[in-house]
Amino acid sequence: MDGAVTTTGLTKRYGQVVAVDDLALRVRPGEIYALLGLNGAGKTTTIRMLLGMVKPTAGAVTVLGRPVATTGHDLWAEVGHLVETPSAYPDLTVRDNLRLVARLRRLPATGPVDDVIDRLGLAPYADRRAGKLSLGNAQRLGLAKALLHRPRLLILDEPANGLDPAGVVEIRGLLRELAATGTTIVLSSHLLAEVSRLADRIPQSALQCHGRESSLRHSSGWSER
Length: 225
Ligand SMILES: Nc1ncnc2c1ncn2[C@@H]1O[C@H](COP(=O)(O)OP(=O)(O)OP(=O)(O)O)[C@@H](O)[C@H]1O
Description:
This is ABC transporter domain-containing protein. GO terms for molecular function: ATP binding; ATP hydrolysis activity. The chain is of the alpha/beta class. It has 2 domains: about 1-80 and about 150-225, P-loop containing nucleotide triphosphate hydrolases (Rossmann fold), CATH 3.40.50; about 90-145. It is built from 7 helices and 8 strands; from the N terminus they run E-E-E-H-E-E-H-E-H-H-H-E-H-E-H. Helix 3 packs across helix 4. It starts with a strand and ends in a 29-residue tail after the last helix. The structure holds adenosine-5'-triphosphate.
């Protein structure tokens, strides 16, 4: 049980809908691990349970060696996340949104903020109000917020959402670079081509799409990048 993320028997039901069914996964430290599934397969629900945002109907989640249900803020100092459409203060600039996150995380207001603006290609938009960003740049801002504190573990729901092809390539490069320096990454996608270029592993999964066969793909031992 010494994975960066482990789940056992993880299940979430909404009335008659089984969003996630008996999911067992084990993410090793330093790998890029992809949850691949069709719309409705349960990816977002799984990610929300990994982050403690949704309470499982059954099963358990351990993140960085600690059970999620009982973790406090100390764990979140080591985790960065992006879930669905990232939110930001629309009337604040990109830089001020990041400064605010830096303050909440007790980081210096300049160094890490400038650094993440550069890494995410946000320099041309740094003084633009977040509410005026394109979907792709809003996604970059969401990723910047997730990366600001240099977390050991990144949990990203559809990180390529809204990005143009060049942006997808850039973010892929960035995630690979982070993984190469020891960051563990769990991400979800409905695009096989995208995750096949990035992930170390795509799990066997008991996730079920509502009314359909299990729709998460499996590639055991796949280590191509
Ligand atoms: N809060 C909720 N209440 C009721 N049903 C829900 C809720 N959240 C998710 N579901 C249902 O659970 C199933 C899985 O949804 P989920 O959003 O996790 O899938 P997904 O793989 O992330 O899909 P997408 O790629 O479309 O975001 C769907 O049938 C969805 O309608």
